[in-house]
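Side project, low priority. Logging it here so it doesn't get lost.
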Amino acid sequence: MPGLLGLTYSDTLRDNARSAIAKMAKMMLHRNFYQQDEVFESDRLCATRIHVNVLQKSPQPYRCRQYLLWLDGEFYKQDELCKQYNLPPQSDPELFVSLYQQNQNFSFLKQIDGFFAACFYDTREQQLHLISDRYGMRRLYWTVYKNALVWSGELKTFLALPDYQPQIDPHAIEDFLGLRYFIDDRTWFANVKLFPAATILTWDIQEQSMLQRRYWWWDEIPPLQSPIDRQELVEELGRRFRLGVECRSRSHHGERVGLTLSGGLDSRAILAAIPSLDYILETATLGQFNCEDVQIARKAAKIKGANFHPIAINSDNWLQSRGSHIWETDGTCSLLHMHFVPLLKTIKHLDLYNSNLHGAGGDGVVGGDHLFEKEQFSYYVEKRLGLTSFSLSDQHKTSIMQRFQAYFNRLDFSFHILYIDNRIRSFLSKDFSLSLLGGLETRLPFLDNQLEELLYAIPIHLKQGNQLYEEMLLASFPEFYRTLPRQGSGEPIGLPRWRRKIKRKTQQFQNKIARKLQFLGINWNRDRSQFQNFFSPNPWIRQQPTRSFYSKILTAPDAYYRNYLTVEQVKNIQQTWREHCDGKNHADKLSLTLTLELWLQQLFEGKYRSDADFES
């Protein structure tokens, strides 16, 4: 993934700094359309930036007096900030430095709505500041190596540092295999961290000392005062959501905005809220031929008057190109969940748009799907996040639960913060990383600051069960929800909840019977099971040549992953593979181990696999 890149000098790194940065930058230049700024070098530090030429196209660093700024990402609602501080319209880097000069501190960061990572250097004070946005969505890795501060948008680039030897964090292995992503700011490398959200890290170059602090936290948001007028709350929720979509639909840098559209509620809400554009809106939907996602998304796009592009996925093409992206995404995304790959190819090939609106954070927070009381924490992790299914042993499960509980405690026992800081930032961020590989920037309207502040202030019981969310959707966009069904349930949210509940229970029972019959070799209700889901990897992995590919990697006696697991855990994986081949569904669990092994092979052997290795 593109991003910022640099290091400060120390006695041991000074002579090799320029060559190290050159090697690190080369490792980040995955695509010929990537752009790299000139390497800045002084007697104190060496830095550069790599980007996809969509946002912040002007060369960096931006210079003003003694200040230098590298900025990866973008701000929203700049006009409001300029008006508040009596500043003329200006670019994001100019605005950042202007606000700092006016305040003489970083107090203005609380007011910035945007996704960004920044490197701000005060040449007079000899202080370097690394800064993340409120949610930490723009990837930035950092470490202190040989008394120097090193930062990069990609983890693998640390391998280019002189004499650097990566140490795999065993807890990272546990997290990935048990949850599909890492807990907190952990990475594969024990001595490298993911830069935290809403944070300023100040490095004093002369003293070679560090100070790290939060500039904003959720506890600054006061709860809503009782009594709460539900109708007013629904209207205010709809108003803030519209504003969040509107500001992210504007073209700040000459980009064209589009939408990856599914059959669910979230991306459809964004579609409905997009204001009139001076070009025809393009939408893209991935799925098996005629599946529910494609059918529903097509109807929603027609209501909006947007162009609709269905992108087929099937047993023959689903694995293509995914393997090469394991290295490019630092092994943080399971091969199974790289759904953005075929979407990106079509969007790039047809030149549909270069800034994508994404529905992450919708029903997970607004709808309350991931919001529970703290007493339900264990159930949430074990069942909702799948730890019970993914864990390889009791020891594995216990270790994750203990660390996850400690992390949850540090987040003030808030499931809202947990969902944003861990679920979106660590798991759903895979889509943002993959999109950059296709030259596509990503915007998340549901993570609009004003909208999130309202959502955090609303009591949990009002959000759970999707009731408040559905009321907002029906009140704000009735033509998109009154009669158009939701993927999975097959029923529109405009129907009475009791009727949808009966339908859901009936469907769950039918699916349970179908799975049992399928295990016995009986394909019952074939038409429904074949097209209900947009993606069906479970049977596809059993088909050749994918089956042989999985088997060769997972059962290899000299596989790297065996070095990080107990004998019991390795046996669990082997047994899981046999059960999957016999008809059970372990596609997700097995693909995690496969991804880990391929990442380790690339890391320690340089065994990079071409797309041809993954063609099925």
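Brief comment: The chain has 25 helices and 18 strands.
Revisit when time allows.
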